[in-house]
Design goal:
alpha/beta; elongated; two-stranded parallel ribbon; 19 strands
């Protein structure tokens, strides 16, 4: 390159580097020799480097891609940003000077920083974005957040998103103290602060919120952070994710309900409370008249003990379209019966979304306890409930099946259930238990069971109903019976044949 430049300087051919360029670009990209210009220069000199740079820019300026209007090139850059998780690609500036100039003249291109870029990259992005709202997501573990805060705080009034999903306890405390005591962040809409605990005796940080500190907050996610907030702080929230935010309080359910009391716009809610020691006992709510309504809620994930879940569901009113995802944590030393009856209020209470259930699914095995409910039968159905038992230690839950079936049919007796799917060791369920459970489902049309053993008890309960006209006919609408993986001896086969003949079943 330097040798070509020297030869061009000697013969004066630099005047015709880009003959097809417009005059204004040609003037910018070419040069002529002056009378005092040397005919020879040191190839390592700064002058030679500058002339080589101008030569390269002149060549690039004549390329078709550099004839694109600035507006079109900026749109291309925005597309690249959108497919790069909303973050600008610095490599765009390395193509040529023209691309660099266009990229640096677009503040919106630099309005977000993500991944593992450090505080120096954050500072550069903030300067280039000028005054536009800014989004910060730092996904790596941060032990000391102060270098980031030194860069962020001068621009805090225009920060729109602030996400630190992996902070040390000290870093989280420093960040939350800054947010509480320094200049308010009127533009902050999305705040995520998660603590990654790496010590046996962690110091749990606390977030104090009021309406003046973060007036525009609409999305909040906290993990390992104690929450202390005035109700007015949550009036504009549409997404709330709390993990162990109340774990030091024995009256967790009451505090959660009081926190949700002003969240009328909430659309997505996730609460995980697993911070209780086994020696701690949840204090039941004394105020039985408290009722919290979340009219806009579409999705609710709740992981807690059965007592906490029961208190929350008893005092919570949900719209029909809400999807519930429930994880019931329990002590394996004290689980002897199914917890379903203790979780849901009698006749489902104010959980009107579960009254829309038309299909139920129950799976109980050695290490799985799962309940699902759907709003319709068949492939067009929408899941409205997912419930699972969670335990830190392995525990055999097989024997919970009879109680689980009893509690499930009792809980949903008010809903017109048309389909029931059951998986587990059906030999554990006695004939009278089957009759009692099926009697609660008068609208049942389809019964599907999967078993690793005998299904004679369920067949005897259905056959008893057919053979005794004086008794109430169980499931009069039943038209389909599916037995998967079942063992049928001669007696069970005869029962099945008589049931099919009496009911006209599809099997």
């Amino acid at each position: 390159m330097i040798a070509c430049l020297q030869q061009a300087v000697i013969d004066g051919s630099l005047r015709t580097l880009a003959p097809n360029l417009p005059k204004e670009k040609r003037a910018r990209s070419s040069f002529t020799l002056t009378e005092d210009a040397p005919y020879w220069m040191d190839p390592m000199s700064p002058e030679a480097g500058q002339r080589a740079l101008r030569l390269g820019r002149a060549r690039n300026a004549n390329q078709p891609v550099n004839r694109l209007p600035t507006e079109i090139l900026m749109e291309v850059f925005y597309i690249v940003k959108s497919i790069s998780r909303g973050v600008a690609c610095p490599e765009l500036m390395h193509v040529c000077g023209y691309w660099r100039d266009v990229a640096l003249s677009a503040p919106l291109l630099w309005s977000a920083v993500s991944a593992g870029q450090g505080s120096s990259a954050l500072d550069a992005y903030l300067r280039r974005s000028e005054g536009v709202p800014f989004d910060i997501t730092y996904r790596k573990y941060v032990f000391d957040v102060r270098p980031f805060l030194d860069v962020i705080m001068p621009h805090v009034r225009r920060i729109r998103t602030l996400k630190f999903p992996a902070l040390s306890e000290q870093a989280a405390e420093t960040l939350l103290t800054k947010l509480r005591c320094s200049t308010p962040a009127p533009g902050l809409e999305d705040l995520t602060v998660h603590v990654t605990i790496r010590s046996s005796t962690p110091q749990i940080p606390t977030l104090w919120l009021d309406g003046a500190t973060l007036p525009s907050l609409s999305r909040l996610s906290l993990k390992g952070i104690l929450l202390r907030a005035a109700p007015v702080a949550f009036r504009d929230l549409v997404h709330l994710d709390l993990c162990n935010a109340f774990s030091t309080r024995p009256d967790v359910a009451r505090i959660i309900l009081e926190t949700l009391g002003n969240c009328h716009r909430l659309q997505s809610l996730s609460i995980t409370e697993q911070g209780f020691a086994r020696s701690q006992t949840h204090r039941a709510m004394a105020d039985k008249s408290l009722m919290v309504s979340l009219p806009s809620l579409e999705e609710f994930k709740l992981v807690a003990s059965a007592a906490v879940i029961s208190d929350i569901f008893t005092h919570l009113s949900l719209p029909a379209r809400t999807y519930l995802d429930v994880g019931c944590s329990f002590d394996p030393d004290h689980i002897t019966i199914s917890p379903l009856a203790g979780i849901f209020p009698k006749a489902l209470g104010s959980l009107t979304n579960l009254l829309e259930a038309r299909s139920l699914y129950l799976f109980v095995s050695a290490n799985i306890f799962r309940v699902r409910a759907f709003d319709a039968v068949g492939p067009v159905s929408k899941k409205i409930l997912q419930l699972e038992l969670n335990c830190d230690q392995p525990v055999d839950m097989t024997l919970l099946l009879p109680d689980a079936l009893r509690d499930l049919t009792d809980t949903f007796a008010s809903a017109p259930i048309a389909e029931l799917e059951l998986h587990g060791n059906l030999a554990l369920i006695a004939e009278d238990q089957w009759r009692l459970a099926l009697a609660r489902l008068p609208s049942l049309e389809c019964l599907s069971v999967g078993s690793r053993g005998q299904v004679k008890n369920i067949l005897e309960s259905l056959h008893y109903s057919c053979a005794n006209a004086a008794d109430e006919f169980l499931c009069p609408l039943l038209s389909k019976l599916h037995l998967g993986g079942a063992k049928l001896d001669e007696s069970a086969s005869n029962l099945l044949a008589e049931i099919v003949d009496h009911r006209g079943l599809k099997h």
